[in-house]
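can u do me a favor
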């Protein structure tokens, strides 16, 4: 048993996600939940009573009076930036829900505040809630790619349409699916995890073409169907296909390299391993159309390994107690997936290929214009049940 003192933590945002975090936070032996905070007084009071802690109604008051060492931020996306910055300015460790920000410029501001805070305390910790990096299949794919077993990568295609959301979901909050409140649709809300995994596995593309359909299937003013095409510096191409409209949806990833292909679908990884390099076989084969011999192999995965939000938080708390250490995802990494998301949307808006790095000022200006010119009238229905335990598995 560790003799380290408990980390005093506060939670900001007591909605569906924040409430889920509270359930395990209050069970962690090395954590003391000293406060909860929400701008809706009734929510904060209810959570504080349920978990025997103190309620605050503004994050600035929380930071000034509660004595917390760390904060977990689970609020609407635009608020991630100012709350994170204020926390770093107070020397408070930050674990932020995805995405790091709505657009790249805000992400840069957050990272700059973190770097400035490190000048005063080199051990200050900034983590981001990319729990899908803990999933055994994702970790195994990463391990295979890092081991070079596929050789030179040729193509990655990810069809992830297991993000079905009904109209009731979008009507469940006045901020959801609006340019001013959420800053985007599926790329901003559901797919930060997918885009983080994409860049974690393959890196950030050099050129992006995006095709985003606005409110194609739902009464919303943001994107609910997206197809994107990526080109990487090493010649690899990528495809990214997502929507909140398909049911039953698909979650299929194909990764093709010179030594075969990986298929990930239905929680199973299959490796079709070729006996020779595909690239060499193209040049050397004495057959006009014959394929190189390949072997079908199902890759074993340890499905019993701990996963999820709690694992991310545990690593965050351990890093605080140890004065540093590895996290599931370090906060500044969040800008990579966000860059891809912003580039997809900017490409779609402008109907042109976007070369990275993205013009962050242009995208921020476009977002502001969309928010200011919006004539969308939001209907809010609070009678539905929000199920944040939804899984793509």
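np, heres the sequence
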């Amino acid at each position: 048993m560790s003799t380290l003192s408990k980390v005093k933590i506060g939670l900001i945002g007591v909605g569906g996600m924040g409430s889920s975090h509270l359930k395990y936070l209050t069970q962690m032996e090395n954590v003391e939940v000293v406060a909860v905070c929400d701008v809706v007084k009734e929510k904060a009071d209810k959570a504080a009573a349920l978990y025997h802690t103190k309620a605050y109604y503004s994050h600035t008051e929380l930071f000034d009076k509660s004595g917390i060492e760390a904060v977990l931020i689970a609020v609407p996306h635009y608020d991630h930036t100012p709350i994170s910055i204020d926390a770093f300015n107070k020397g408070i460790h930050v674990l932020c829900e995805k995405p790091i920000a709505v657009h790249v410029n805000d992400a840069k501001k957050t990272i700059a505040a973190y770097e400035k805070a490190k000048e005063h305390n080199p051990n200050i910790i900034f983590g981001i809630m990319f729990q899908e990096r803990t999933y055994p299949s994702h970790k195994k794919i990463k391990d295979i790619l890092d081991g070079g077993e596929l050789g030179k990568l040729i193509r990655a295609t990810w069809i992830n349409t297991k993000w079905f959301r009904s109209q009731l979901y979008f009507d469940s909050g006045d901020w959801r699916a609006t340019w001013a409140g959420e800053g985007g649709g599926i790329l901003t809300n559901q797919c930060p995890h997918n885009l983080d995994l994409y860049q974690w596995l393959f890196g950030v593309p050099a050129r992006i073409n995006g095709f985003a359909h606005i409110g194609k299937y739902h009464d919303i003013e943001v994107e609910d169907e997206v197809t994107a095409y990526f080109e990487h510096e090493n010649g690899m191409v990528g495809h990214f296909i997502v929507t909140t409209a398909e049911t039953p949806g698909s979650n299929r990833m194909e990764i093709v390299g010179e030594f075969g292909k990986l298929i990930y679908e239905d929680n199973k990884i299959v490796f079709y391993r070729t006996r020779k390099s595909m690239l060499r076989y193209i040049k050397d084969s004495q057959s006009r159309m014959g394929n190189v011999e390949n072997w079908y192999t199902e890759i074993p995965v340890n499905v019993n390994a701990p996963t999820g939000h709690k694992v991310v938080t545990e690593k965050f708390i351990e890093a605080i107690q140890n004065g540093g250490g590895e996290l599931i995802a370090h906060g500044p990494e969040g800008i990579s997936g966000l860059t891809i998301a912003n580039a997809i949307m900017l490409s779609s808006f402008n109907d042109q290929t976007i070369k990275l790095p993205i013009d962050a000022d242009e995208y921020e200006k476009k977002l502001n214009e969309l928010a200011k010119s919006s004539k969308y009238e939001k209907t809010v229905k609070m009678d539905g049940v929000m199920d944040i335990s939804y899984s793509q598995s």
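The first strand starts at residue 7 and ends at 12. hope that helps!!
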